[in-house]
Design a protein that fits this description.
Blueprint lengths: L21 H32 L5 H24 L10 H11 L2 H13 L5 E8 L4 E8 L10 E7 L6 H4 L3 H7 L6 H19 L1
Antiparallel strand pairs: 1-2, 1-3
Helix pairs in contact: 1-2
The protein binds manganese (II) ion.
Length: 206
């Protein structure tokens, strides 16, 4: 039961150097991300098997694995699209206005998201999310791939704070990595996600 597929990167492995090394991207995409895709598909098979046998003894563990692997797949897929060679700078248009409105300024937002990434205990992600309920942007600190997020919120920009994302290049100096990603952000992609999330929220509210 193959339902999830590893997407190609929208650029070459070395395209984000010197900010993210080609070796890191190769392993991160080709091995780590792939493992979440394979893991998610495997759990789907195990769930099907459980239904066929009428044996749900391991349902709690399977659900935990499903949430972990699918969420890992979703976040990595967004992360790759959030970056591009020669990216960085600042967002424009409605996204920039929303950031100013909800965080006070771009600099305050940058500081908040970077701090959220830098203070994760163990493995996780920092994310800029759109919360359709309050119609506003906020940040979350996701533990592992799935804990401590806001239900219904839409991730727009994510920072991988797992050691595999930076250790080969930045070693213990993870804050340097969380600074470096601001040189490769693809703000057009983030703005597109913001526009789509708002549109979807309006449809749901009708
Ligand atoms: Mn990762």
């Amino acid at each position: 039961m193959t339902r999830y597929v590893l997407p190609d990167l929208p650029y070459d492995y070395g395209a984000l150097e010197p900010h993210i090394s080609g070796k890191i991207l190769e392993l991160h995409h080709g091995k780590h991300h792939r493992a979440y895709v394979d893991g998610a598909n495997k759990v789907l098979e195990q769930l099907q098997e459980a239904r066929q046998k009428g044996d749900f003894t391991h349902i709690a563990a399977l659900e935990r694995q499903l949430a972990f692997n699918v969420s890992g797949h979703v976040l990595h897929s967004i992360f790759w699209q959030n970056m591009k060679p020669n990216g960085g700078g600042k967002p424009k248009g409605e996204l920039a206005e929303a950031i100013d409105r909800d965080f006070g300024s771009f600099d305050a937002f940058k500081q908040q998201l970077t701090k959220a990434a830098g203070t994760i205990m163990g493995s996780g992600w920092a994310a800029l999310v759109w919360d359709p309920l309050s119609q506003s942007l906020t940040t979350v600190q996701i533990h592992d791939h799935q804990s401590q997020t806001i239900q219904g919120s839409v991730p727009l920009l994510v920072i991988d704070a797992w050691e595999h994302a930076y250790y080969l290049q930045y070693h213990n100096e993870k804050l340097k990595f969380f600074d470096a990603v601001w040189n490769v952000w693809n703000w057009d992609d983030v703005a597109q996600r913001y526009a789509q999330a708002r549109k979807a929220g309006q449809t749901a509210a009708k």
